[in-house]
Amino acid sequence: MNKSDEIEFRAFVRARMDRWRRAAYLLCHDWHLADDLTAVVIGKLYQNWRRVAAANNPDAYAQRMLTHSWLDERRRPWRREHPTDSPPEPSGAYAEPADSGDVIELLAGLAPKQRAVIVLRFYFGQSVEETAELLGISAGTPKGR
Questions:
Q1: Of 32, 78, 104, 132, which residue has the fewest beta carbons closer than 10 angstroms?
Q2: What is the arithmetic mean of pLDDT over 74-93?
Q3: Are 37 and 66 in contact (CB under 8 A)?
Q4: Residue 94 confidence (pLDDT)
Q5: In a domain, 90, yes or no
Q6: Average pLDDT for residues 127-143, to the nearest whole number?
Q7: Contact 73, 80 (CB under 8 A)
């Protein structure tokens, strides 16, 4: 990656990283896993930056990577680390709003793909068609989920 590409990549990531992290948390309900998913997406974006930068909608490309990374993690639970001690509480900088507990609880009750549809549609504001394209499903499926 040349210097101008790296500057462009860093600006792209800096502007969106907090949003990706919050979206990852909405999907997985674990700040530590959300950080891991965000890091995986940033790594994949870096590896494929020329393709991402040339895409019609780089934001949608990154959102798709995030959603697919989370779904991949759900499919492979045996790869996760199992800590022996409880992790520390998140710092005040990333504490969740007081009224988000109901939303988190409702999202936790959904199947992974249903949760992905809800987060893409209502958190990211994607259309039905964009959501279907990001998840690789037919356009009518998000409506049913």
A1: 78
A2: 63
A3: yes
A4: 47
A5: no
A6: 85
A7: yes
Residue type at position 2: N
Q: What is the CATH number of the domain that holds 15?
A: 1.20.140.160
78/25: higher pLDDT: 25
Could you give the maximum distance between any two Cα atoms of the chain, in Å? 46
Q: Are 46 and 143 in contact (CB under 8 A)?
A: no
| pTM for the model | 0.57
In a domain, 32, yes or no: yes
Domain that holds residue 51: 3-77+98-144
Q: How high is the pLDDT of residue 18?
A: 94
Q: What is the DSSP string of the chain?
A: --HHHHHHHHHHHHHHHHHHHHHHHHHHS-HHHHHHHHHHHHHHHHHTHHHHHHSS-HHHHHHHHHHHHHHHHHH-GGGS---SSPPPPPPGGGPPPTTHHHHHHHHHTS-HHHHHHHIIIIIS---HHHHHHHHT--TTHHHH-
Give the pLDDT confidence score for residue 131 in this predicted structure: 87
Residue with tokens 């969740």: 96
- How many structural domains does the chain have? 1
